[in-house]
C-alpha cells in the first residue's frame, strides 16, 4: 500500500510509495552495471560477478507530488544460482529482465525468465525487457546480434515494457526505471525489507558454503 509522507515533509497532496524490483538475466549481460548507473550514476568497466544477490535502493520523482522508491534486488546470473531466484522475485512488484544485444543466446535466456515470472511471480507484476550494451553497436553495428525490431516484437507479444540501454553511456537507463514507475499502482506498494534498508546496498551471499566469487565481468 502506498504510504503518505508525514505532514511538513512534502505537500499535503504528495504521495510516496515503495516497490520491490528484481533484475534477472544471464551472467555478464550488465544487470549490476545498470543498477550502478541508476543508483549512483557510475560505471565500472570491470565488475566482479554478483553472488546470490545485491540490494540497493533509489527514488524517482514522477512529478512534484509523487515519489517512487525502488527496493532493488540484483540477482546473480550464473546457472548455479538460478534456484535462488524465486526468493528474490517472490512478491516483487516489478522486474527488469536484461539481455545483451551482442549475444543472441542472452535473449533466449531472457525469454525463459519472462516465462518463469509470468508463471510464478505476482500476477500483476510489471515486467520490462532491457537490451543492454547499446554502446557496443553504436560505432560497430556488425556487433549487434539481436535486432531492435525482433526484440520489440517479442516484448509487444509478451506485454512487456521495452528499452535498449547502455549502462556505460547511461542511455535510456533513467527512462527505463521511470517507465516502470509510471506503470506501478501507487496503492499497491510492497512493504519495506527490514533486513536491508540502507541506500548504499548490501550484498547477500548464497547459503552454499565455500562458494567463491565469479570472474571479472566487463558488463
What do you see in this structure?
- The chain has 219 residues and is α/β, with parallel strands linked by helices.
- It has one domain: 3-Layer(aba) Sandwich (Rossmann fold), CATH 3.40.50.
- 26% of the residues lie in helices and 26% in strands.
- The strands form 2 sheets. The protein has a 7-stranded mixed β-sheet with strand order 7-6-5-1-4-3-8, with helices on both faces. A two-stranded antiparallel ribbon has the order 2-9.
- A hairpin with a 2-residue loop joins strand 3 and strand 4.
- The radius of gyration is 17 Å and the shape is globular.
- The protein starts with 14 loop residues before the first strand and ends with a strand.
Which key phrases capture this entry?
seven-stranded mixed beta sheet, 6 helices, membrane, globular, Rossmann fold, cell membrane, 219 residues, GTP-binding protein ypt5, alpha/beta, single chain, two-stranded antiparallel sheet, protein transport
**Which CATH class?**
Alpha Beta
CATH superfamily annotation: P-loop containing nucleotide triphosphate hydrolases
- Unreliable stretches: 1-10, 188-219
How does the overall form come out from the CA principal axes? Answer: globular
Structural class: alpha/beta
User: Order of strands side by side in the largest beta sheet?
Assistant: 7-6-5-1-4-3-8
N to C succession of SSEs: EHEEEHEHEHHEHEE
Number of helices: 6
The overall strand count is 9
Average per-residue pLDDT, rounded, comes to 78
Sheet with the most strands? 7 strands, mixed
Oligomer: single chain
Any idea how many domains?
1
